[in-house]
Write a structure and sequence with these properties.
By secondary structure, this protein is α/β, with parallel strands linked by helices. The protein has two domains: 279 residues, TIM Barrel (Alpha-Beta Barrel), CATH 3.20.20; 54 residues, Immunoglobulin-like, CATH 2.60.40. The chain has seven helices and 16 strands. The strands form five sheets. A six-stranded parallel beta sheet has the order 1-2-5-9-10-11. Strands 6-8-7 form a three-stranded antiparallel beta sheet. It comes from Streptomyces avermitilis. This is Xylan 1,4-beta-xylosidase. One of its GO terms (molecular function) is hydrolase activity, hydrolyzing O-glycosyl compounds.
Length: 334
């Protein structure tokens, strides 16, 4: 899969040539000028021809550079124009190329906020930013086509609030998925990025124990699956040395003893194995007393159970009684 972002400087008012490239974040996140949309589509064609084994292409990233300051909303007309040019160009290269967008960040606000808050997509976790929904709807109505749809987002609000708590906040991922799927006529839904733990000022996520982190991550993946997602990309953090790496899948690979799997690896890899795209999910019985305390996802062969409490519990799920430690994650066979 290739994410087609971002544009060379000469497409946005700068000079051509690698020596003249402005590598600052603000420059990289600047969208191409409308006069160069066709040039960007031509660049996408070059990429597709150079890597013919790649079949999936995401057009742009998080609407970066597509904010309309004068209207205080997303420039969804500009993005959609760029998207359509790229879509058509890639299909001319090979009709089998799979193209998707719009890769919007599905921001939400505090449930008490009224300004820019959606009145339709909301819950205890907050309310969707209506400007994001408007941008998605415009793209969806005016796109030249799509083979899959892409979103990005977090379970917490724009103010980094996990409402009403870190586990229940993941219900947002389900609500967003259901809203998107209802509008896209069965297109596969990809979460190109998803986050369930707010970052600190250095963009680090180290405030939780790894046991708690894995439990919330499992709950987030369950929520995405319930919302109809077919794919979710886990952005793996990395440290240069040591085994103390919050949320990492494996230890640093710079040394001979590196690459040892960490707890998050077991969860992410097994989730993908047990619940691949196209899985038909089933409802399993959960003891009444356990319903508020566990999150469950099941198909005809496996059941994933998460203890959302910071204490051990005895739970009964799918007719089986078992013990779960604080923030425990357990797989059952059926």
């Amino acid at each position: 899969m290739v994410t087609l972002c971002c544009a060379p400087d000469w497409m946005k008012g700068g000079k051509s040539g690698a020596d003249n490239t402005d590598w600052s974040r603000s420059a990289l996140e600047t969208a191409p000028d409308p006069d160069h949309y066709k040039d960007f589509a031509a660049l996408a064609v070059t990429v597709a021809k150079r890597y013919p084994d790649v079949r999936h292409f995401i057009v742009w990233n998080e609407f970066k550079g597509f904010w309309n300051d004068s209207r205080a909303r997303w420039d969804y007309e500009g993005y959609t124009e760029l998207y359509n040019l790229v879509y058509k160009a890639l299909k001319k290269v090979d009709e089998k190329n799979m193209v998707g967008g719009p890769y919007l960040v599905m921001d939400s606000v505090d449930p008490r906020q009224q300004e820019n808050a959606s009145t339709a997509v909301k819950g205890p976790w907050g309310a969707m930013d209506q400007r994001v929904l408007d941008a998605f709807d415009y793209w969806n109505r005016n796109k030249a086509g799509a083979d899959f749809v892409v979103v990005d987002g977090s379970s917490y609000t724009k103010d980094d609030d996990l409402l009403p708590n870190e586990f229940a906040a993941t219900d947002k991922l389900t609500a967003v998925g259901e809203w998107v799927r209802a509008r896209t006529r069965g297109l596969p839904l990809w979460w190109a990025e998803y986050y369930v733990e707010p970052a600190d000022g250095n963009d680090d996520r180290t405030g939780w124990s790894e046991t708690r982190r894995v439990a919330v991550q499992a709950t987030g993946m369950i929520a995405m699956a319930r919302g109809g997602a077919s794919s979710g990309f886990y952005w793996n953090p990395e440290e240069e040395r040591g085994s103390d790496c919050a949320g990492c899948l494996w230890t640093p690979t710079s040394g001979g003893d590196g690459g040892t799997k960490l707890p998050m690896y077991d969860l992410v890899s097994r989730f993908g194995k047990e619940f691949p795209p196209g899985t038909t999910y089933e409802t399993v019985p959960v003891a009444k007393d356990d319903v508020p305390n566990v999150r469950v996802l099941a198909d005809d062969k496996a059941v994933l159970v998460v203890n959302t409490l910071d204490r051990a519990i005895s739970a009964k799920v799918d007719g089986k009684r078992f013990e779960l430690p604080a923030y425990g994650v357990k797989w059952l066979r059926r």
